[in-house]
Automatic annotation (TrEMBL):
Its main location: membrane. Residues 1-10 have a biased composition (Low complexity). PANTHER family: LYSOPHOSPHOLIPID ACYLTRANSFERASE LPEAT1, PHOSPHOLIPID ACYLTRANSFERASE. Belongs to the 1-acyl-sn-glycerol-3-phosphate acyltransferase family. GO terms for cellular component: membrane. It comes from the Eukaryota. This is Phospholipid/glycerol acyltransferase domain-containing protein. The chain crosses the membrane at residues 72-97, 121-142. Residues 1-39 are annotated as: Disordered. Keywords: Acyltransferase, Lipid biosynthesis, Lipid metabolism, Membrane, Phospholipid biosynthesis, Phospholipid metabolism, Transferase, Transmembrane, Transmembrane helix. One of its GO terms (biological process) is phospholipid biosynthetic process. It comes from Sorghum bicolor. CDD domains: LPLAT_LPCAT1-like.
Length: 377
């Protein structure tokens, strides 16, 4: 595991929760009421997948020693503005590349149909500039491992389909930084809010990525509609090599990186092979995991961290058995167990609803929906 070269020797690495309590039960409807009177420690134990255990404490608001506060102030004065300007320049540069490559190109429902040199330019510059953005964020080195499973005979592999292209990358979800890594490695498309397509700079880039846009705040965009769009795109990926692979986070939200939540079946409905990827963020002071902290504070603390670390484990392509093709839930559960085993992650039955309850309780609110600003993919 890589160490923070700028960290003091006295900083002890944070220990991982005991895997003996491997699965956390689903919470009852009375959770929101019972949580209101619990201490922060009791809440952390109950909602373990979302609890922060770094030096900044619950929601990044904990008291800091004088030396660490001075270090943070120095980084905010010197490092933060440099990284912000550099990040904006990288974003602007990629926007200009996308703008140039989409000139005089027909669009299908806002999605430019790029081919030939245009697609290569968008793809290669996108991978390079995404890696540059990670560098700006302090991820100077990324440790990647391509793992061959020692128990490969226990993993369903249909030899007749091994040449079929994976339709989606499925990954555990720890931070918004996950997307930057996957863009730097394979430049996939992903599901995003419809409003993203209208954002300055980012809107054109997301269209070049081939993102699927959904109106999550609208009742008309129910899970079935989103799943249908994802299934159609995954099948398109398998048939057309010019269609970027889908990046899907089956958990549906972020955790603190030690746990793996139940998988939604959307990524597995197409019965296509998937590429499992495991992401981890070793840390000493600030955890890059986006679990229970508001976005602005998280970005601030991440940019003020002198060095950030990431470890990636890429597993072999998972080819579903006939039984898994007929049962997407079984397919999702088997891939989830594989990722948990190979990533040494603890399985948990908690979900997005419990995350909202936890966040609301930390904010002193009894309403599970009181933290709508919290990211909920």
């Amino acid at each position: 595991m890589a160490l923070d070269t700028a960290a003091a020797d006295a900083d002890a690495p944070r220990s991982r929760p005991d895997a003996s309590a491997a699965v956390h039960p689903l919470l009852s409807d009375s959770t929101s009421t019972s949580a209101a009177g619990e201490t922060a420690e009791e809440l952390d134990a109950r909602y373990a997948p979302y609890a922060r255990r770094d030096a900044y404490g619950t929601m990044g608001r904990g008291p800091l020693p004088a030396a660490q506060a001075a270090r943070l102030a120095l980084a905010a004065a010197l490092l933060l503005p440099l990284r912000f300007v550099a990040g904006m320049l990288v974003l602007l540069l990629y926007y200009l590349v996308c703008r140039a490559c989409t000139l005089f190109v027909d669009a299908d429902e806002g999605r430019p149909r790029l081919a030939g040199w245009r697609r290569k330019a968008v793809l290669r510059s996108g991978c390079a500039l995404s890696r540059a953005m990670l560098f700006v964020f302090g991820f100077y080195w990324i440790r990647e491992t391509h793992r061959r499973l020692p128990n490969a005979e226990d993993v369903n592999q249909d030899q007749s389909e091994e040449s079929q292209r994976p339709g989606a990358i499925v990954s555990n979800h720890v931070s918004y930084v996950d997307i930057l890594y996957h863009m730097s490695a394979s430049f996939p498309s992903f599901v995003a809010k419809e409003s993203v397509s209208r954002l300055p700079l980012v809107g054109l880039i997301s269209n070049c990525l081939g993102c699927i846009f959904v109106q999550r705040e609208s009742k008309s965009s129910d899970a079935k509609g989103v799943s249908g769009a994802v299934t159609e795109r995954v099948r398109e990926v398998c048939q057309d090599k010019n269609t970027p692979m889908m990046l899907l986070f089956p958990e549906g939200t972020t955790t603190n990186g030690d746990y793996l939540l139940p998988f939604k079946t959307g990524a597995f409905l197409a019965s296509a092979p998937v590429q499992p990827v495991i992401l981890k963020y070793p840390y000493k002071r600030f955890s890059p995991a986006w679990d229970s902290m508001d976005g602005a504070r998280h970005v601030f603390l991440l940019l003020c961290q002198f060095v950030n670390h990431m470890e990636v484990v890429r597993l072999p392509v998972y080819y579903p058995s006939q039984q898994e093709k007929e049962d997407p839930k079984l397919y999702a559960n088997n891939v989830r167990k594989l990722i948990a085993t190979e990533g040494n992650l603890i399985l948990s039955n908690l979900g997005l609803a419990e995350k909202r309850v936890y966040h609301a309780a930390l904010n002193g609110s009894s309403l599970p929906g009181a933290s709508r600003h919290q990211k909920d993919d």
